[in-house]
Design goal:
With about 260 residues, the protein is of the alpha/beta class. It is built from ten helices and nine strands. It has helices at about 5-15, 40-45, 55-60, 60-70, 85-95, 110-115, 140-150, 175-190, 205-215, 240-255, and strands spanning about 20-25, 100-105, 120, 125-130, 135-140, 165, 190-195, 215-220, 235. Helix 4 (about 60-70) crosses helix 7, helix 5 (about 85-95) packs parallel to helix 10 and helix 8 (about 175-190) packs parallel to helix 9. It binds nicotinamide-adenine-dinucleotide.
Length: about 260
């Protein structure tokens, strides 16, 4: 890592008043959850075109396979993972009053478990289930227990409807209120910090563009280049945990805590 560059980024973050973090699957790989598009990622092992809401509703065999994957911890439904230094650093930036919170594409709830208070989940979360008919919700572990006990395609215990993780699948709308709030944060941000996102999926990848065009300093921390590196004010090609840990140390030294 380049010390001078980390110092420059820490300077930007330490003077932030309305900083916003924006995260993708890459911040959680160090916790053991694979991302989508890296080699060995989820789409290397699964056919993306099948993972639509239409397929889930239409095809009981697809639902059975999805629940089997969840019960065997082969998906993002995981109860055996912990937040890492990357999640903790972003929570600390919020605690220091420099950052407003996190906009995340992740569904793993690791930001909240690391201490982040303000988290806008663009794609819902995989720690809860929801009934597609009556909107009954509860812990995903309840459904996983039923699958492990032999129910291949568990239905809603209240209305018999189709049950699914409380996530946004391909073909489903992003929650309009969350998108609106994320847009507001992005327009209003003075520093916008992207961590672990390929920035290939819209509308999510549009938030750093909004922030930059509205005057924010754009910082990107990712293992590989993204399409927005050219417009960014600083880019670190590296692991999220180590990089954010090194930046946070410098920020704390500057704000005197
Ligand atoms: P993505 O897979 O498209 O991109 C992840 C990026 O993170 C890649 O560019 C990769 O180089 C980088 N990366 C991997 N490990 C890293 C590390 N340790 N440090 C820094 N960078 C690292 O993921 P995306 O941009 O989030 O978009 C895809 C979608 O994936 C999201 O919509 C999300 O819903 C879903 N998803 C969520 C989870 C989760 O909740 N943990 C996991 C996989 C996918």
């Amino acid at each position: 890592m380049d010390d001078a560059q980390l110092d420059r980024i820490a300077e930007m973050l330490a003077s932030a008043e309305r900083g916003v973090s924006f995260t993708g699957a890459g911040i959680s790989t160090e916790s053991g959850i694979p991302d989508f598009r890296s080699p060995g990622g989820f789409w290397d092992r699964n056919d993306a075109s099948k993972f639509t809401i239409q397929n889930f509703v239409r095809d009981p065999e697809h639902r059975k396979e999805r629940w089997k994957m969840a019960a065997e911890r082969r998906s993002f439904v995981r109860d055996d993972v912990e937040p890492n230094d990357g999640h903790r650093a972003l929570a600390r930036l919020e605690e220091l009053g420099l950052f407003r919170g996190v906009i995340t594409q992740n569904v793993d709830r690791l930001h909240q478990r690391a201490g982040s208070k303000e988290v806008l989940e663009l794609h819902g979360n995989a720690t809860e289930y929801m009934c597609l008919s009556c909107d009954d919700r509860g812990p995903i572990s309840d459904v996983i227990e039923r699958v492990k006990a032999g129910e291949e395609d568990p239905s809603c215990e209240h209305c018999g409807g189709i049950v699914k993780t409380a996530t946004v699948s391909f073909g489903q709308q992003l929650p309009a209120d969350i998108v609106m709030e994320a847009r507001r944060w992005s327009y209003d941000a003075d520093v916008f910090l992207v961590v672990g996102s390929s920035l290939l999926v819209y509308p999510a990848a549009g938030f750093p563009e909004i922030a930059k065009s509205a005057g924010a300093d754009l910082v990107i921390v990712n293992k590989e280049p993204t399409p927005q590196d050219e417009t960014a004010d600083a880019v670190v090609l590296g692991g999220a945990g180590e990089t954010l840990g090194a930046i946070l140390e410098r920020v704390e030294a500057r704000v005197g805590s």
